[in-house]
Amino acid sequence: MPLTPEQQAEIDELRAGARPTLRAVSEGMEKHLYLPHQVLDHGFVRVIDYMGDDAAITQAARVSYGRGTKTVNTDEGLIRYLMRHWHSTPFEMCEVKFHVKLPVFVARQWIRHRTANVNEYSARYSILDREFYIPAPEHLSAQSATNRQGRGALLEGAEAARVLDILREDAMRSYDHYESMLSDDGQKGLARELARMNLPANIYTQWYWKVDLHNLFHFLRLRADAHAQYEIRAYAETMCRIVADWVPFAYSAFEDYRLGGMQLSAKGIAVLKRRLAGETVTEETSGMSKGEWREFESAWEA
């Protein structure tokens, strides 16, 4: 398990000290509090704190206090309505704070979502651990021939072994040099803020990432998608399972309308109507670009 003894002791202490509270509590989220969910080879995601539940979303939508006379069924229906019609503010009433351990190259992709509060482990003040992400053989792929930011066929045999050897050797050599530059044994030793520049992008970092539910759903819609890079998708899929326990009504609506749904353009709706009327519509007669047509057609493939 990728936790230090100190981190595990802290988790054990926090989990043992239950306290009474008057605030809204999600029983599904309580079981996740502080516990790490392993991701990749050395990474994890864990919930540090959260605010709100499904009821907080409906209360905000109704601008009222308490549950009143509303039933669970009407709460679920309202949440589905809000999700269906792209209402965002009620979902912002829920927040969660994650502790994430992740490779630096994944963090640089993740940080593009500028709607969260982030505090990252600082290699200016502390020394990073000798931990690197090395892909499992089943995730070692060649460059896609059709997608500049995607993967193609799986590397196998001697080629896969060669690449894995390079990744391990480069990571270890870089860390050896990092330690050597920091060392003050018979020398002054380079400042930590400078020595870190030599470390590879597959070394692990950690951060606290606090976000509201609306922006978390936006993150998950992009990063839990099948087209997202595998490494960040692994984190997003773990977070999806956590959110499903935290706000089951909201997550069910999100899964239905965002993850499992699709948005049609006006041209797409027109083509669909023409097809339902019995007309044969082709790319040439659709009015769509090649890219639009390809995406439209792929949505109906079995």
UniProtKB/TrEMBL annotation:
Active site: R223 (involved in ionization of n3 of dump, leading to its activation)
A Gene Ontology BP annotation from the UniProt entry: methylation
InterPro entries cross-referenced by the UniProt entry: Thymidylate_synthase_ThyX, Thymidylate_synthase_ThyX_sf
Keyword Flavoprotein among record annotations: yes
Reaction(s) catalysed (UniProt annotation): dUMP + (6R)-5,10-methylene-5,6,7,8-tetrahydrofolate + NADPH + H(+) = dTMP + (6S)-5,6,7,8-tetrahydrofolate + NADP(+)
Quaternary state and interactors: Homotetramer.
Protein name according to UniProt: Flavin-dependent thymidylate synthase
Source organism per UniProt: Paracoccus halophilus
